[in-house]
Design the sequence.
């Protein structure tokens, strides 16, 4: 409740949280737009494959030129300015850095970055949620073994949903469902970077103005990111996911209690305790007023007469039975909110969400009929999309997780809408990401 006051205190004593960032794309740039305003936080170093891109983005969001003029990490610490480079390893290894923010968006690279940071005693906030979706539990386990904090990124919908779930449980409520919103029609799963902006609702000029990556944004639209984030929520809260993937029922914020209750009570849930996503479009494609497209929600149960009477007395919007109610945030602000994670980890040593189990997985599913020899292009591309499944089912079927599917080569054809299996591809089995995936699978039987 008083993170900002604590940041001010750290600033007053010249004991700022020293942060290193890997990746200066959209998410990282959004955080940088806010970080320069925050007391008690020092962005010591920013690394990117293209340092000129990082410099351009800093100028784009209003950083003065001299704010990122440090010549080295040591110079940055001495002057209070920031150092820009392409050497993430040197940044991670520097003893003066307190925590690392990983926001490359590349899950295979992210796992390597995260584990290397752990090895150097660094706390890590991981904005590359794709990594959490296929090996988050083993990353959390590794953090505990190294004695450091590993955290989801506040501002992304998984961390915000975890916060709502934690609120409900700490109040003593039974959580029936939790999740996020999305603009969804079934045809969107076949969307490509060439079709994204018309579907998304932006012009090409607006996308260019915001320096938006069409492949990254398409990963949201085609269902890959909702699946990834649903898996991350399930694995961080202990909730489950639907056996056949997300249902995307349409509705507005007041519809949530009626939708997100068990089928036996008139809702859409196979069973209580699931993650789900609500669509902001009707089945005919019409926009639903007062939607939850950009927000998050939790549904809880008033499981006795006294609690249900309290709902009624305080005019809580419930389902038709008065038994289920929902709390929600209509918006998430992505990297603009990351300061909450930095403050929580840096001041309290508390993550803003992290995997505690392996309940959910995200297999790669063919977006088109794929021939032998095809090279998969990862989430948001032209070849595959992601669909969430219960982890035990996914592992039993030998499904290839979406996070390991980028650049994989097919050695046999796969039909559209069919999950891709490990036996269907050639992939690198020597990466840190692959090894952490194997450790995550092992957790199912431990």
Sequence:
């Amino acid at each position: 409740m008083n993170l900002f006051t604590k940041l001010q205190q750290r600033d007053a004593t010249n004991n700022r949280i020293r942060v290193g960032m890997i990746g200066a794309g959209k998410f990282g740039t959004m955080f940088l737009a806010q970080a320069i305003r925050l007391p008690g936080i020092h962005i010591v170093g920013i690394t990117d494959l293209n340092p000129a891109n990082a410099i351009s983005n800093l100028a784009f969001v209003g950083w003065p030129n001299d704010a990122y003029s440090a010549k080295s990490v040591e110079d940055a610490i001495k002057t209070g300015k920031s150092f820009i480079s392409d050497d993430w390893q040197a940044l991670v290894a520097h003893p003066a850095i307190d925590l690392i923010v990983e926001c490359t968006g590349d899950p295979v690279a992210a796992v390597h970055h995260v584990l290397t940071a752990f090895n150097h005693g660094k706390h890590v906030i991981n904005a590359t949620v794709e990594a959490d979706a296929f090996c988050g539990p083993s990353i959390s386990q590794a953090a505990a073994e190294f004695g450091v904090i590993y955290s989801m990124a506040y501002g992304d919908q998984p961390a915000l949903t975890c916060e709502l779930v934690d609120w409900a449980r700490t109040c003593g409520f039974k959580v029936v469902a939790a999740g996020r919103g999305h603009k969804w029609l079934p045809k969107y799963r076949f969307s490509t970077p060439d079709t994204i902006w018309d579907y998304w609702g932006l012009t090409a000029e607006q996308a260019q103005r915001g320096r938006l990556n069409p492949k990254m944004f398409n990963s949201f639209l085609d269902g890959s990111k909702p699946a990834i984030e649903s898996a991350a929520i399930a694995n961080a809260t202990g909730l489950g996911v639907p056996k056949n993937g997300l249902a995307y029922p349409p509705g507005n914020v007041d519809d949530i209690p009626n939708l997100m209750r068990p089928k036996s009570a008139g809702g859409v849930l196979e069973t209580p305790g699931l993650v789900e996503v609500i669509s902001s479009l009707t089945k005919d494609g019409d926009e639903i007023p007062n939607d939850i497209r950009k927000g998050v929600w939790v549904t809880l149960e008033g499981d006795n007469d006294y609690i249900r009477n309290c709902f009624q007395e305080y005019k809580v919007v419930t389902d038709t039975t008065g038994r289920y109610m929902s709390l929600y945030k209509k918006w998430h602000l992505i990297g603009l909110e990351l300061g909450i994670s930095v403050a929580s980890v840096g001041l309290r040593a508390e993550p803003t969400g992290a995997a505690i189990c392996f309940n959910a997985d995200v297999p790669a599913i063919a977006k088109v009929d794929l021939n032998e020899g095809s090279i998969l292009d990862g989430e948001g591309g032209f070849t595959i999309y992601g669909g969430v499944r219960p982890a035990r089912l996914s592992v039993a079927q030998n499904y290839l997780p979406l996070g390991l599917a980028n650049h994989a080569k097919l050695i046999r054809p796969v039909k559209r809408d069919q999950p891709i299996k490990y036996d269907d591809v050639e992939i690198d089995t020597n990466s840190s990401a692959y090894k952490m995936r194997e450790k995550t699978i092992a957790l199912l039987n431990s």
